[in-house]
Amino acid sequence: MNKKMLIIIAAVVLLLVVIGGVVFVFVINKPETEPEIVYLEYRLDEGYSNLADVDSNKIIKYQVTIEYTNADTLALLDKNKTKIVNNIDEIMRITSSEDIDKPNGKQRIRDRIKEMVIEVLDSDEETITDVYIQPFIVQG
């Protein structure tokens, strides 16, 4: 009887060790995963501005979309929409068609707008992740 009892106890202990190991490996020691980033978009109305070209009447047509990651940013964007739209217009007015035609000209404008939005919202590049301009048409 003692021998059977010893075998049963050993089997139970072995089973508990195996179960404990499995729980540790799959539940407790679970590697931390990065939280999935959700990108949201805030689309502004279409805009038109004169370009800074002295000898021409060139006009730029554009629509800016701001990409952000924090849902609370939507309220800040709504609150500061007029200031953001005005500042975008000012950025476009000091831009010449030569600036646009340079390598990465459109990207530079996007970067200026992104920096301005971050400044207006007192935010950062993790929250305001990108700015898109579509359409981007120069007429004249």
From TrEMBL:
Q: What is its main location?
A: membrane
Indicate the transmembrane segments per the record. 7-28
Superkingdom is: Bacteria
Q: Name one Pfam family in it.
A: FliL
- Species of origin reads Fusibacter ferrireducens
The entry assigns this protein to a family as follows: Belongs to the FliL family.
Does Transmembrane helix appear among the keywords? yes
Q: How does it sit in the membrane?
A: Single-pass membrane protein
What keywords tag this UniProt record?
Cell membrane, Cell projection, Chemotaxis, Cilium, Flagellar rotation, Flagellum, Membrane, Transmembrane, Transmembrane helix
Q: Where in the cell is it found?
A: Cell membrane
- The entry's protein name is Flagellar protein FliL
Q: What's the stated role of this polypeptide?
A: Controls the rotational direction of flagella during chemotaxis.
